[in-house]
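idk why but the lab printer keeps eating my pages so im just putting this in chat instead. protein + zinc ion:
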Amino acid sequence: MSQVFSRLLWLLALVALFLLGSEFARPLFRPATIQRVLVVAAALLVWAYINGQWIFVRFHDLRAGLRVRSLPEADPFTTSDTVLIIAPHPDDETLAAGGQIQTALAAGAQVFVLFLTCGDGFEWNSMVLERTPLPSASEMLKLGERRIDEALEAAAVLGLPLDNLIFLGYPDGGLMRLFLNHYIHPYLSPYTRVNTVPYDRAHRFGAHYTGKNLERDLSDVITRIAPTIVYAPSPKDAHRDHRAAAYLAMRLQGERHEENAVRYYIVHGAYEYPLPKGYFPTLPLYPPPRGRGLSWRRVSITPAQVRRKAEAICKHRTQVMVMRRFLLAFARPNELWSATAIPIRETIYPVEQGDLAVVALEEDTDLIEEGQLDAGGV
Ligand SMILES: [Zn+2]
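predcted complex ->
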């Protein structure tokens, strides 16, 4: 509610500025000129707000500082910890936990990163890289290979042993479909035009793209590593691959009766999260709008670790090329994770009151918006 209120205030402030400016400028310029100037000024203010320019950097600092200071600090890692970070795409591990990977290693913990896909479905990325409006299937596979190399380079910067990186090689942009439609029958990636894991370096080269295989591979890795802490995307993340990864992590950890070992993170948090865009190594990282109501913990990162995290982010060169300011906005003096997968409010509502039905309806609305469900068929 407070977010709606603050957005409303911003809108009112912009309208007031527009009207005031019109009044003052009326004797000097023609009305059409005034309107053009004010529209440009309003656009400039929005740009400055998003990118933390001028006074807005102080505003973001104060606002995020207030919100982050009240969060409890997470317990430190110990030598007996074995950490597994589940990343839907190469770069998620660095964005969500690049600082924690360093603190865990410094504390003597073991850290493993598991990539569900190799990021071979990001067409816009391939268009820019290959300078072509229609990237071919082989160019998309080349992008996947490049992103594996970049993940290895980023891990080396963070101090991770490269043997601790596991690539499953499932289809980028298709993880949800593996569970909804292709649990048994193979899925054909519309980007790479393959229906089996195509990367030599992958955990199981040649495995069919099915939900069953993905589940089995992840289960194999979890059994082998026996993590005491698992980082997984939150089911509240805006990206479908991330939500599919959340489902998988919850399901497998639940079967092992180790659901309390999961720490949920959000990368795609809505409303241009995280603001401001760009490299601001001293501004706190605040909980994302989509993560409202989750039980967030903060993990403090030293300035040297923030610099190293930014350096690791820059190793994901194909990504930096198309969204540099979004990626670098994660290099902040703290990281965040939630101990709960969904807002606490939603977990305590009794079924008899029918509130769970409301929650379920909200989730379905998400799916309808994404074209996953037919509105008439729910
Ligand atoms: Zn991702």
